[in-house]
Amino acid sequence: MSYVQIDQAFKQFGKSVVLQQVSLNVEKGELVTLLGPSGCGKSTLLRCIAGLESLDSGTISVNGKDISQLPPQRRNVGMVFQSYALFPNMTVFDNIAFGLKMQKLAREQITAKVNQAIELVHLSGKESSYPHQLSGGQQQRVALARALVTEPDILLLDEPLSALDAKIRKSLQSDLRSIQRDLKMTMIFVTHDQEEAMTISDRIFVMNNGEIAQQGKPEHIYASPKNEFVARFIGSYN
Ligand code: ADP
Ligand code: MG
């Protein structure tokens, strides 16, 4: 049994079907990417995993437990968005500490965990800065630390690097990957960028129109696209 199992996920908004019986598995400690053009259902699938939307039918299980009926706060799933969504009136430290304070951890424990997370994302020295004093890349590092500090079972990342310029994006890609490997964190990463998916993923799920068009290791998908959609979509990367 896989760590994350999504079985026959189905979702429609009004008459438009956005997820058509999507099934996929993710192993513990794996980084998989949902890759596909805008509108294919990537964010909806992540939001259903996080509990921000509910499936019309199908199940989502993590570690053998069906979470698809649980409220978001009981799913133990972390999420990072394209817009950093930091609290503007809180320092870096307090932004990261927020979730731990909600869990009512002791103050020394919070300090230790937050400092560890700050070090992990290479933001030492920025503890007292406010979000507006940071670059986009640094703000996204705070968002990452904030999501990781509560030790979620899975981390969901919805186009987290898409708003950043190329150079900063590259360095965050490689930092994210090494953090993921160090922590052995299970991550589901969403992007519409073929090159990013190729660089960062253990496995890729190519999505089209609410379905998985192909899944496999990056080199496999690149070498043997299964149909014309995948070939065109992957081939447009240069
Ligand atoms: P992606 O993240 O791949 O760009 P989305 O999951 O955001 O795709 O959207 C998939 C489809 O569902 C799109 O056609 C979008 O317009 C539609 N959609 C997403 N959220 C809603 C919503 N809350 N209400 C109605 N339609 C929605
Ligand atoms: Mg999206």
From TrEMBL:
Positions of the ABC transporter domain: 4-234
Nucleotide-binding among keywords: yes
The enzyme's E.C. designation: 7.6.2.9
Keywords in alphabetical order: ATP-binding, Nucleotide-binding, Transport
Domain of life: Bacteria
One cellular component term from this protein's GO annotations in UniProt: ATP-binding cassette (ABC) transporter complex
GO molecular function terms attached to this record: ABC-type quaternary ammonium compound transporting activity; ATP binding; ATP hydrolysis activity
Enzyme class: translocase
Catalytic activity entry: a quaternary ammonium(out) + ATP + H2O = a quaternary ammonium(in) + ADP + phosphate + H(+)
Keyword Metal-binding: no
Transmembrane segments: none
Subunit structure: The complex is composed of two ATP-binding proteins (OpuCA), two transmembrane proteins (OpuCB and OpuCD) and a solute-binding protein (OpuCC).
Annotated protein name in UniProt: Carnitine transport ATP-binding protein OpuCA
